[in-house]
Each structure stands twice: as structure tokens, then as C-alpha cells.
Write a structure and sequence with these properties.
D-Maltodextrin-Binding Protein, domain 2; 13 helices; alpha/beta
Length: 347
């Protein structure tokens, strides 16, 4: 009996050890939007791709709707290891690395194609920003996600020019957006995306700057009536992981996470235009009016915000000059591509 008892104990311990070994590595991922948002659905697609490829050895625990951290807290949370992974708005890295402000410079990224070219993993701009974020914050960028061009949603009247902005309290998503609002005559309020509707209801603000795909989820149609397509900047989110956590993963997991990130990133860029169309359709069905800005209004916006680009180049110094040169090459190549597809007269 004594031998049988010892054998039973050994078998129990071995079974327990096997169960422990079989437990997958679990990484928590924090994000602001819900899993129903286009950006959130992309994260869930990534989760499924990674977990399937990992064959049960890795699990992503997605915490949506700012359950763990507000949007401006995510870079610090992931960099410090308070949470393993996150989705962060690129502009929130400006305190560590000002190069991220390039995408918020007024009217530089005036087409989705140009934004995508700059955000491509092979682009000089993308590579530089990813490296700086890693070095300065301890977070590795795995993929970039578009959130669309910036629009302004307002109560009572559209904000189609700087004159209409004057005297308004406008929600800005970060410090650079707040500078734009201030330079063009309004009072900025930097407010988390999850708090926009509450701020509108409390009359702390009467307009918000954000991407149009946020309308259904944030229910902004309940408190705003107009969408003005200023499109002065590109809103980008990045999928990030704490570098120490990353280095602790087996190389095989690192590879499959990287491959999945590239696949999901490319797929999301391909699908995003349709998501924006759906968001505008939803807004119109809810009674919102969409306004385009005229050429003269565009000129007025450019004039009032021109200091932003000057400050950016001055603050960045030599790296800023190189980034602007890289931007110039992309802009030229995009312009050349547009020329190539122009219809020939008479055909």
C-alpha cells in the first residue's frame, strides 16, 4: 500500500505538471473602442489569427471600452509593463517622440493613399517612428491602424471655417490637435474618446474632433448635428507590446505574431474605406448633415494653422528635416501615380 500511495502521488504530480505546461501564455491587450468598432474588429481578427497559429500556446485577453486604461494612459501602461499589449493613438507618443506629430501637421496628408504609403512598414517615416518609440518608451510597435482623417462634429451649426470655430469649446484628442484648435480661434479641451458624449451632454464642449467611424459607437449623433470634413490630419492607432514581454516570448511566437500583424494591418487598410462609408451612411440616417469645405475655407484653415508646421520642424531639428524629405518623396511619387492614371483626352 505504501508503494501504491507513493506511485499515486507521483502520477498526480506528473499530471499537475503537464497541466501547468499546457497552460497558454496569456497577454492582456487594452483598447478604447469596443470589439464592434472597425478598429476593434481588426484587433479581434488579429487575436484569432495569432491564437490559431499558436496552436493553444498563446492567448490574447482583449479588454475593450477602456476597461483598464484611458486612451492617453495606454503608452505609459504598456511601456511600464502594467499591461502587456495595447492599442494607442499615435499622437500620445509626442511627449516621448515628437516625430509622431508629422501625421497631425495641417493638410500634409491630404489623401488616404499618401497616409497609407507613409504608414507602410517599409517606409522611411514608419521605420524611424517605430524605432524611436521602442527606444524611448520600451514598447514595440507591431502594426498600425488607420482611424481616418480628422473631422469636426458640432452642435447648432457646422464649423466649416476658422471664423465659425471662434468662441467654441472643441474636444481635441491630444496636445497637437489642441494647438490646432487654439490657433484657429477656439478653446480646446483634451478629452478621452470614451468621455466625449458625456462632455457634450454636460455642455463642457459643443464640438468634437475625431474620426467618423467613432460616430456609431460613441453615439455622437445624439448630441451633434453636423459633420465638417476638414480632414486636416490623419488619425493613426498602433498595436504595441511591452518589449521585455516580447523578448521573453519564444522566437516562434514572435514570428507568428509579426506575420499576423502584417497580414491584419494590410487587410484593415484595404477595408477601411468601406468602414468610413458605412459610418457616414449611419450618420446621415441619424439626421446628421455632412459638409465639405470650399477652396477658400481650406485656405483659411491653412493660414490659421501654419505655425504648427513651423514649430514641428524647429522642434525636430535635423531628424525633422529628414522626415520632411521622406514625406516629399512620397508626395512626389503619389502625385506621379495620379498623373499616370489621368484619362487621355479623346478616349
Amino acid at each position: 500500500m505504501k508503494f501504491a500511495s507513493i506511485l499515486l502521488c507521483l502520477l498526480t504530480l506528473m499530471a499537475s505538471a503537464d497541466q501547468v505546461a499546457a497552460q497558454p501564455t496569456t497577454l492582456r491587450l487594452t483598447m478604447q473602442v469596443s470589439t464592434n468598432n472597425p478598429l476593434g474588429r481588426n484587433v479581434m481578427d488579429y487575436k484569432q489569427a495569432v491564437e490559431t497559429a499558436a496552436g493553444g500556446t498563446l492567448a490574447l485577453d482583449v479588454r475593450d471600452k477602456a476597461q483598464l486604461f484611458l486612451d492617453n494612459q495606454v503608452p505609459e501602461a504598456v511601456g511600464s509593463g502594467a499591461v502587456e499589449m495595447g492599442i494607442a493613438q499615435l499622437g500620445f507618443y509626442a511627449g516621448w517622440e515628437p516625430s509622431v506629430e508629422l501625421f497631425q501637421q495641417p493638410f500634409l496628408f491630404d489623401s488616404d493613399e499618401l497616409t497609407r504609403a507613409a504608414a507602410d512598414p517599409s517606409s522611411e517615416i514608419r521605420r524611424y517612428i517605430d524605432e524611436q518609440i521602442l527606444q524611448k518608451t520600451g514598447a514595440r510597435v507591431l502594426w498600425w491602424q488607420p482611424y481616418g482623417a480628422t473631422v469636426v462634429m458640432s452642435k447648432s451649426a457646422p464649423i466649416s471655417n476658422p471664423e465659425a470655430m471662434k468662441g467654441r469649446n472643441v474636444r481635441a484628442f491630444d496636445a497637437v490637435a489642441a494647438e490646432f484648435v487654439s490657433l484657429c480661434g477656439a478653446t480646446p479641451q483634451v478629452i478621452s474618446g470614451s468621455k466625449m458624449l458625456d462632455a457634450l451632454k454636460a455642455q463642457k464642449i459643443d464640438a468634437v474632433m475625431t474620426g467618423v467611424t467613432g460616430i456609431p459607437e460613441r453615439e455622437l449623433w445624439r448630441e451633434t448635428q453636423f459633420i465638417t470634413r476638414i480632414r486636416h490630419s490623419a488619425i493613426i492607432f498602433v498595436g504595441i507590446i511591452n518589449e521585455k514581454i516580447w523578448q521573453g516570448l519564444p522566437v516562434s511566437l514572435q514570428k507568428l505574431m509579426t506575420i499576423a500583424a502584417r497580414n491584419e494591418e494590410s487587410g484593415f487598410w484595404n477595408r477601411f474605406a468601406a468602414a468610413e462609408v458605412d459610418a457616414y451612411r449611419f450618420a446621415i440616417e441619424k439626421g446628421m448633415q455632412v459638409r465639405e469645405i470650399s477652396e477658400s475655407e481650406l485656405t483659411d484653415w491653412r493660414v490659421c494653422s501654419s505655425e504648427l508646421l513651423e514649430r514641428f520642424v524647429e522642434k525636430m531639428g535635423e531628424p525633422g528635416v529628414k522626415l520632411m524629405a521622406a514625406y516629399g518623396k512620397l508626395k512626389s511619387s503619389q502625385h506621379g501615380a495620379e498623373k499616370e492614371i489621368q484619362p487621355v483626352a479623346g478616349r
